[in-house]
Protein: DNA polymerase III subunit gamma/tau
Organism: Corallococcus terminator
Amino acid sequence: MSYLVLARKWRPQTFDDMTGQEHVVRTIGNAIKMDRVAHAYLFCGPRGVGKTTAARLLAKALNCEQGPTANPCGTCRACTEITSGTSVDVAEIDGASNNGVENVREIRENAKYLPQRDRHKIYIIDEVHMLSGAAFNALLKTLEEPPGHVKFIFATTEAHKLPDTILSRCQRHNFRRISAARMLQRLKEICLAEKAGISEQSLSLVVRQSEGGMRDALSLLDQILASCGPDPTDEAVAEAMGAIDRTVVQDFAEALVRKDAKRVLGRVDEVFNRGLDLKRLAEELALQLRHLFVTKSLGEAPQELAESEQKALLALAKEADTAQLSRLFDIVHGCIWDVSRAAQPRLALEMALLKAIQLSPAGSIPDLLARVERLSAGLGAEGATKSTSGAPGGRSGPSNFRV
Ligand SMILES: Nc1ncnc2c1ncn2[C@@H]1O[C@H](COP(=O)(O)OP(=O)(O)OP(=O)(O)O)[C@@H](O)[C@H]1O
Ligand SMILES: [Mg+2]
Ligand SMILES: [Zn+2]
């Protein structure tokens, strides 16, 4: 059998298996249990978060021989045919390539007839926002009052492109980006089953790059395993992703906090020589400093990071105060734009990092107040001697102090 990419191999086959999207799974599960399944559903949300998967699961739930059930068996003929896309009663239509009015007319004609074998005739229209205006209009009547045996499930990443007339005839469910922590968990499980020895730290890099999309994460994982083999080192993974090794980023943050200018410059040199993007480095550093700030403020590290990284952050956070971290973040974050624009990005980055190290901290607010008080006490004494010629009304003391 030909190789099946991870994203397809690991398509959830039960609602329980879906990561995140609990709000959708719960509502649909209840509707099935209470026999209140709507005749048209619209699944919207970003790419690769489970819309098509959920549409197929709903089709199985409705047509499973043991059903209708929120836990389709996955083994009966109806279920297996839906999985393989060969069911006679479930049509999966790509809205992008079947977007004309004639395609919709065909659906309308077909919908009149009873299902050939299973309980329902189900039309899954993916990328439904691609239908033409005339096609949408042709769909309205059927969508309003379809025959009892017909169900529509639409999926789209761009719900705002659908006419209101369509939106108002569907039960809409918004799919969310999958949280970093849940995604990391799922990737760990998949790697374990696939016997892939990739570190948690590298997986968290994959998670971050995929911005909540599970398909993106699995495709990236596929690509990494293909190019680095089943037991890749962190460095190899970072290289394969064109990313900067997390260890390097951690080391940078440590050097910045410890004001180790030599180490900072050495690291910039290394990253530069490896041909990696310096703007990306600045972004990674800003993010790492953000993590550090969060860790300092909350007393715990962000959960989406690997355990080893969380520990390192907790330890490093103890070495810095919030004023220092906030200043570091401001300067590093502020330089991202400069680095991306500069004729010599390396120069811009180095100067920003050195400034971040060199500038003395503004100090904490109590410190500042004490300094102001000391200053004003000194000036107050002076002000009192000048009060006759100076401030009107003989005001003296600290109130004479002008900044
Ligand atoms: N919530 C999820 N839980 C587990 N795996 C998921 C989830 N969402 C997506 N995946 C993985 O990503 C693959 C693609 O998911 P799916 O086809 O459902 O995405 P989609 O939301 O329809 O994306 P698109 O908008 O690009 O069509 C699945 O085969 C599965 O491996
Ligand atoms: Mg899809
Ligand atoms: Zn079944």
Observations:
- The two ends are 79 Å apart (CA to CA).
- The domain at 180-240 is CATH 1.10.8.60 (Helicase, Ruva Protein; domain 3).
